[in-house]
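Methods — Computational structure assignment.
A single polypeptide chain was analysed. Its primary sequence is given first, followed by the predicted tertiary structure written as structure tokens.
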Amino acid sequence: MHKPCAVIPVYNHETAITTVVDALLDQGLPCILVDDASRQSCARVLDLLAERDNVQLVRLTANQGKGGAVMTGLREAARLGFSHALQVDADGQHDLQDVRRFLDESRAHPQALICGYPLYDASVPKGRLYARYLTHVMVWINSLSLQIRDSMCGFRVYPLRPTLAVIDTARVGKRMDFDSDILVRLAWRNQPMRWLQTSVHYPLDGVSHFRLFHDNVLISSMHTRLFFGMLLRLPVLLWRRWRA
């Protein structure tokens, strides 16, 4: 079975979210919006969107962070009977013309996680761009593999069953550490992954919730936890690499 939806975490992106939802609905993709305790002006926009066919709204009373909102959306998607979920950011940075290509790849390989790796334009903040390279190295070390081409791009199609198996049994980061954390933990479980390049620009509504110091500290802490988790799994990971 391949029954996909879109999961969109939303925190104060009232300017861009309608454009994002319109683009997804135009391609026949149901949307699950997760309001991560947004201000009232954004909440009103989300209430209006939730009146549309094929739009579901889940409202969190306290801010959980991007990862917490995504995980809430993935659980809701499974509850509603979907088999796969396309994670999309609410700020309009992802190229939604690629939605059909990602879903086609997922339909052809339903057991695989379909991951985007970004092609940036000039709008990308240089500090964010350079920091990604350090994250790439840490992810390769922590997964003992080069299969993860980019762990920070949040444009991906999750097969819900294996993804929720990780979320329900592991301590996965709830904020900006989520995107990398979940990929490494899925790689530890030998999850098939397929990679498609996609254009990314920053951002449609001029709102970024990335906190340079706080989130970099959070991501560094995540990599430290994953490193020790990798050491515990080292015999299995090395055996798997040797068999491959």
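Note: Residues 4-243 form a domain with the Spore Coat Polysaccharide Biosynthesis Protein SpsA; Chain A fold (CATH 3.90.550.10).
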